Amino acid sequence: MRTLILTLSTVIPCTPALAGDGPGSAASEDGLAILTKKAVTVPLEGEQVVNDAVVLVKGGRIEGVHRRASFEIPEGYEVLDVGDRWVTPGLIDLHCHVASTNFFVNDLNDVVYLTNPGLRASTSVVPGTRHLLNGLAAGVTSVLYIPGSGSNIGGQGVLLKTGFDEYGRMEIRNPGSLKLAQAGNPEGWTVGVSRSFMNYNTRNTFQRGLAYAVRFAKAAAAGGDAPVKDPMWEVFRSLLAKETQVSTHTQIYQVVLMTITMIREELGLDVYIDHGSFDGWRAGKLAAEKGVPAILGPRQIAPHIVIEYRPGMFIGNDTDGRIYGMAAQYQAQGHELVGFNTDAPVIPEEALPLQAAMAVRYGFDTSRAQHVRGLTIVPAIAAGIDDRVGSLEPGKDADLLITDGDPADPRTTVSIVFIEGEAVYDTRTEQRRW
Question: Is the model's pLDDT at 15 over the cut of 50?
């Protein structure tokens, strides 16, 4: 077995002995054993951290996480000893607009109609954008690339791995979600629309789409001929089959409540709060009861004064003069599935860990590593991809970070990023980007 000790220095140039031939530099069927001071495993249930651990990787997947003192590394495995550094899952951002070369093109905000369920963000993906690569250097390995919020239903997002240079390797699932936006930006559509009409039009679109999906389901159950496909409504077949979710750009209490009551209760679809902001936490108890995860950002605090953010949209609090941390308020409502997003490029992709750090600064409880869970397993569960990513568990993709500390701490640096067992960012061989 070959052994490489990764020192605390990540400054390039590195020594020639390390350049390009270190363990894990490329995906391989050969096994890799990573020795680490701390493996942050963050499964949905169970032990969240394993100290003095061995993380086994083979064929691009995690084989297991073991205590070093009581485990013998199998014969033939390469060994990567990272010393005092940590191994964590790759970070996941469920609100990303930077997988194309220009955020301001109409690919992400075509607003001819107020609802556009047939539009697909996947058609504008450009592998290896500067924004994605910067995010990768901060540990962001998976994103939901979605249309903008200029209309109520902007179209279909796509779930992507950030570190590959070919679209086929990047795609995790397509459609990754159906993007819904409520209040705020869509109110400016054409001459302006009210929330009553937006809710009516959104509900009507969903009902028509689900009727289309039900016709296909009934035909399949009866063994008859399938109806004629219509690309406008195809995403609803995935929604009806629980193969994707509705990701909802929603913020103030009124529209968060509508997300839960209309999409989850009335229509019975899987949905999560995305871009959660302002006082939407007031619906946190109902969201928890109905199984609606809350993915928050890019704002993590609500001001202590009431502000009319947009006409008729008031945010803030005037009862006790406090600045509220929104993630902490969701927790106080009994919500456990709380995560974080950036809305990149509004907040840079590489600032995803800072969203969790801000939540902690303003009262978010971390007794079970909830801040790291909110960057990993919680968004994975929300997006329905927790069978592949989000935690260090056997069988999952080996999307791993080697860090010099807590991945949610802004002072932490990332030394190596593995995606599916391949080192796609490696400060042993390239200049640090973040």
Answer: no
